[in-house]
From TrEMBL:
Gene3D superfamilies: Cytidine Deaminase, domain 2. Coiled coil: none annotated. One of its GO terms (molecular function) is catalytic activity. It comes from Streptomyces filamentosus (Streptomyces roseosporus). InterPro entries: CMP_dCMP_dom, Cytidine_deaminase-like. It holds the Pfam family dCMP_cyt_deam_1. Residues 22-135 form the CMP/dCMP-type deaminase domain. The lineage of its organism: Bacteria, Bacillati, Actinomycetota, Actinomycetes, Kitasatosporales. This is CMP/dCMP-type deaminase domain-containing protein. PROSITE patterns: CYT_DCMP_DEAMINASES_2. Residues 1-22 are annotated as: Disordered. Residues 1-17 have a biased composition (Low complexity).
Length: 168
């Protein structure tokens, strides 16, 4: 693990471990803002996601149903990064909602897509409720794959805002 000092407040570089830095918070806030762009749905959450390289360069962003009614935010963002981009190995993905562990619409859940892409870290605002998928445990799946998942409860309300119609 690196022992370099924390980045300056202006840095956009993600943190490297389980402690969020200021940039992590800013990127997660952006992911929550992207969730508001999703076409509304009565059967799926609105989610935003951003993939950020270790040096703070944004690699891609996405949101639910961006191009297709079945699109997930993380899936859409990852699809925009060229396969084999070496920056993926040290990238962090920010998602307003915990990446899914299983899904009805497509064979590979976002947690597996993140694992396959080789990302090193996930930061999310909201643990998936049981609304659509019982015992959705994307965090457990990712952690089991050696990818730390940080959940920042300060942003849960922002992540839920575009989903209020789905929450009891
Ligand atoms: Zn998903």
């Amino acid at each position: 693990m690196s022992t370099t000092p924390s980045p300056s407040p202006a840095s956009t570089a993600p943190g490297t471990g389980r402690e969020p830095n200021a940039a992590d918070r800013d990127w997660l806030a952006l992911a929550c803002e992207l969730a508001a762009l999703c076409p509304p749905s009565a059967t799926a959450f609105s989610v935003g996601a951003v993939v950020v390289a270790a040096d703070g360069t944004e690699l891609a962003r996405g949101y639910s149903r961006e191009n297709d009614p079945h699109d997930h935010a993380e899936e859409g963002a990852l699809a925009k990064v060229p396969a084999g981009d070496p920056r993926l190995a040290t990238a962090t993905i920010y998602s307003s909602l915990e990446p899914c562990a299983r899904r009805a619409s497509r064979p590979r859940p976002c947690a597996r897509l993140i694992e396959s892409a080789g990302l090193r870290r996930v930061v999310t605002a909201w643990t998936e409720p049981d609304t659509f998928v019982p015992d959705a445990d994307g965090t457990g799946l990712l952690e089991a794959a050696g990818i730390p998942v940080l959940t920042l409860p300060d942003y849960t309300a922002a992540a839920q805002a575009p989903n209020r119609h789905l929450l009891g």
